[in-house]
Design brief:
One of its GO terms (cellular component) is cytoplasm. L-histidine binds at residues 65-67, 92, 106, 110, 299, 304-305. This is Histidine--tRNA ligase. InterPro entries: aa-tRNA-synth_II, aa-tRNA-synth_II/BPL/LPL, HisRS-like_core, HisRS/HisZ. It is a single chain. The protein is of the alpha+beta class and 362 residues long. The chain has 14 helices and twelve strands. The protein has helices at 4-20, 34-41, 67-77, 117-131, 144-152, 158-166, 171-181, 189-196, 213-228, 234-245, 250-260, 268-283, 330-336, 351-361; strands spanning 24-25, 31-33, 51-54, 58-62, 82-91, 103-112, 138-143, 247-249, 292-294, 308-313, 324-328, 344-349. The strands form two sheets. It has a nine-stranded mixed β-sheet, sandwiched between helices. The chain has a three-stranded antiparallel β-sheet with strand order 2-4-3. Strand 3 and strand 4 (58-62) form a beta hairpin. Helix 4 (117-131) packs across helix 12 and helix 11 (250-260) runs antiparallel to helix 12 (268-283). The protein is globular.
Amino acid sequence: MPQRARILERAAKLRGYFEQAGARPVETPVLQPAETLLDLYGEDIRARAYVTSDAVRGEQMLRPDFTVPVVQMHMAHGAEPARYTYSGEVFRRQEHDPDRDNEYIQVGYEVFDRTDPAAADAEVFTLIAKALSGLHLRATTGDIGLLLAAVTGLETTAARKAALMRHIWRPRRFRALLERYSGRSPVPPARAALLAASDPMAGAGPVIGLRSRAEVLARIEALRADAAAPPISEREISALETLLAVRETLPFALEHLRDVAVDLPQITPALDRLEARITALAARGVDVDNLEFEASYGRTSMEYYDGFVFGFYAAARADLPPVATGGRYDALTRALGDGGEIPAVGGVLRPGLMLTLEEARA
């Protein structure tokens, strides 16, 4: 692993590069209020972050990334349009993969601009691609907005759509819900018996745990309502499966997804945004004919992104995490904007990994 001094030197150069592109340098505290992140992502964030407690400030987290505090700062005090850059340590628990770093330097570039979102997407992608030039990385793109639009427009209950939306970033759970809501997976016998009982709490014994009797009964009634709802149509399920399986170069992916939109017309506006992005990328010199697109990309690690997503990977080093990632997070600005919102897109790079790859080639 390169020495820390060299990583910091590279981080400073990258930050200067983004400043030359028009970004204002910003700093954020290493300790962040845990409440904000927990409200956004639920308790799942605890599995990836270092949490501590302060008698005055309450629960705090070592900064898992810069995006949330930068968005908070911009929504409270920022002018429009705005571009920011930053560098510093982030901290991620790696219990599932102890060989990966749990503390590393990150450099980022964020754009808050409502003028032309497609152009902003292309700006961030191409600036980061240029910063990585010479490393022979594989670039992958996707668009979380397609799946969000597809789920929002399903012909099913609001409760089912809300559950699917919560689990878009948990592919296994999302798949299990689709199987259940489509009627493909049978109702477990124990659940069927519970829902059929006239008094489901009979013989249940004393209430133990955090949920009250009323909350348990409300949950049972919600399950009964779901069981009574008609299944999601095979047409919609098949179209969703086709959408999620799309993995092609950008122009072919767009063509394939236009066919999917025949059965999922609600994704058409997202496809129009994708087409505008392809045009904007090509205008900046990107070889879009050979740029990869995966409709499922970003679903396991990019919870606040809701549109364009991308990553750069060392093809010869599958053991390494991505050298750079990014995407669009318009919904995050709404969540943190206290009534305001602005289209926003950004990306981050890992200078330590960049140096590791350079050393391997030397």
